[in-house]
Amino acid sequence: MNLTQKSIKYTCSSGNLLIDFKNLQSRLNFTSLSSSNFLQTLTVNNGSRPISNPLNNFLPETQNPQNIVSLICSALKNKNNGHLVLLQKTIEDHGLISYLSNTEISRVLLRCQSDSSTALSFFNWVKTDLGVKPNTQNYCLVIHILTWSKNFSQAMKILSELVDLKRDGLVSVDVFESLLSASGVCNWDPVVFDMLIKAFLKVNMVKDGFRAFRKTVKHGMYPSVITINCLLNGLSKLNYSKKCWEVYAEMERIGVHPNSCTFNILTLVLCKDEDANKVNDFLEKMEEEGFQPDIVTYNTLVSSYCRKERLKDAVYLYQIMYIRGVLPDLFTYTSLINGFCRKGNVRDAHHLFLRMADRGLKPDLILYNTLICGYCKEGMMQEARFLLHDMIGEGMYPDKFTCSVLVQGYQKQDNLVSAVNLVTELQRFRFVVSHDIYNYLIAALCMENRPFAAKALLDRVSDNGYEPDNMVYRELIESFCRWNYLDEALCLKAEMVSKDLKPDIGTYRAIIKSLCKVSRSMEANSLMREMTDFDVPPDIEVCRALVNGHCRENNFCEAQSLLSFFAQEFGIFDTVCYNAIVKLLSAECDIAKLLKFQDRMRKVGFAPNQLTCKYVIDGLQKAVRVQKINTPVQ
């Protein structure tokens, strides 16, 4: 290759790539290398057999390992896959696969430089049919061959495959350096390094893409503006603003002219940095370069100003757009309307909405949701409802967000009835309402202590395929229990079990506590046994509810039995329950029974505390008074 002292431009399907050959010649001294010298530096795969053996010359030509490269090249020249199939059988029958090292693969590829399709066929045959794993150097050679022949799509496919191996940690070498090294022994096109940057970005290896960019520039090759824009976009998404400006500075230094896409990406970077002065300065520089801000530029700035609640600046830009002949689009109006709604200025947001409609722009679901959300936040539910009807009239289906915002808006006004009516209306019009909305409504009604309304809603929506989960049943059962509607709660629990839904500890706790509260402690016992059968261990609240319930019903034996059961089976040693029984026994003035109970509980693991001693002393004093009263005077 003859090198000149000038910078010339390569053009390919992926863009333009500039090469500074003066710089490149000082870094790539590959003209003195020959294919044979290069191949001497290649290492043979571990485990492959040495080929150079004088005894191999006595073997038939098709069985001689030293002829494997010639045999493969001969089969490839026939342009017939049948020859490769026969060759594969020969190689496998005579055990020659172990002699096909990465060095031999590279030698075959170098002989196929002038025919990229043959090189690609061979490469795929080695990988797929023979099951031989090419090394990085093999990959780089076939990539160079394909790129040189302008077969960029196949070259990008193989390059992406190599990058995937790098990402997954299956190769540890530097892909850029490997491509650079391989360029010394075969025909190559500098655009391959431009493609490498894109390949890294394609799999979100942005840092590797940035390093490849810096190395490409360092070696005198200049990526295309399209590739640089892709790199800037990737860096921007990761908030690497400093690296974005490094790339832009390199663009200016090496003479790659930015386009409008470049400026739009950098405008977004500045908006993320929240530096308004820099944005203005950059826009002035952009205009000096001959680029007028387009719709993307204005939308980026308007969206940024609205997010920062700088609505005056956003509206000013909106007006400038008309003056400069850049008509605002749906994104512009959505950003402004969202900005107004966030500030609570829903009236102006709606005026802007109407102006957009007058211009012939059709609002989308996002814009409708934005305005409906604004109305709901301000408590303007009637306007929100009208907008919902308008949206439906335009043929748009309200989504989960729409329903959720409206339901929450009604709830803030303590008007859940309207929320339920809204959902019923949507159902009547065959709109699909998310199950999350039903869950939310049922839970909200339960929180307002309206369990019957919640149950009625559940029955109505169940006809449409809605299946309540454990949490919904729990909310309903707890709400019924708070108002002592125990029969309804027990029916719901039975319904859960019939649907193979396992009640949790909260569900059981609510029913057990309510049963004990209304002196139905024996029923609560049965529920506790069912709970343990379902492998739901009781907690301390269940223990207290049951023991205290039996104590209130003066059922000492059952209370004592439960206290021992909870301690021995579940490790629940609750002194509150223990003291409740002590207090009960003290009130009966049966000191012998009290002392016997204490002795039994001490063996289980209970220890008396200060309150226990007080109850015992009170019991002793009361027993003494009773004895004095019952003792006749002598």
Core attributes:
mainly alpha; three-stranded antiparallel sheet; extended; Pentatricopeptide repeat-containing protein; TPR-like_helical_dom_sf; 634 residues
Give the overall average pLDDT.
Answer: 85
The main pleated sheet reads as: 3 strands, antiparallel
* Helical residue percent band: 55-70%
Give the overall shape, derived from the CA principal axes.
Answer: extended
Protein name: Pentatricopeptide repeat-containing protein
InterPro entries: PPR_P_subfamily, PPR_rpt, TPR-like_helical_dom_sf
Keywords: Repeat
PPR repeats: 189-223, 224-258, 259-293, 294-328, 329-363, 364-398, 434-468, 469-503, 504-538, 574-608
Question: Your description of this structure?
Answer:
PPR repeats lie at residues 189-223, 224-258, 259-293, 294-328, 329-363, 364-398, 434-468, 469-503, 504-538, 574-608. Keywords: Repeat. This is Pentatricopeptide repeat-containing protein. Belongs to the PPR family. P subfamily. It comes from Nicotiana attenuata. By secondary structure, the chain is an all-alpha fold. Helix content is 68%, strand content 2%. It contains 34 helices and 3 strands. It has helices at 21-27, 35-41, 68-77, 81-93, 102-111, 116-128, 136-148, 152-167, 175-182, 191-202, 206-218, 225-237, 241-254, 260-273, 276-288, 295-307, 311-323, 330-342, 346-358, 365-377, 381-393, 400-412, 416-428, 435-447, 451-462, 470-482, 486-498, 505-517, 521-533, 540-552, 556-570, 575-588, 591-604, 610-630; strands spanning 7-12, 15-20, 221-222. The protein has a 3-stranded antiparallel β-sheet with strand order 1-2-3. Strand 1 and strand 2 form a beta hairpin. Helix 11 runs parallel beside helix 13 and helix 21 packs antiparallel against helix 22 (400-412). It starts with 6 loop residues before the first strand and ends with a helix. Mean pLDDT is 85; it is low at 1-16 and 21-51.
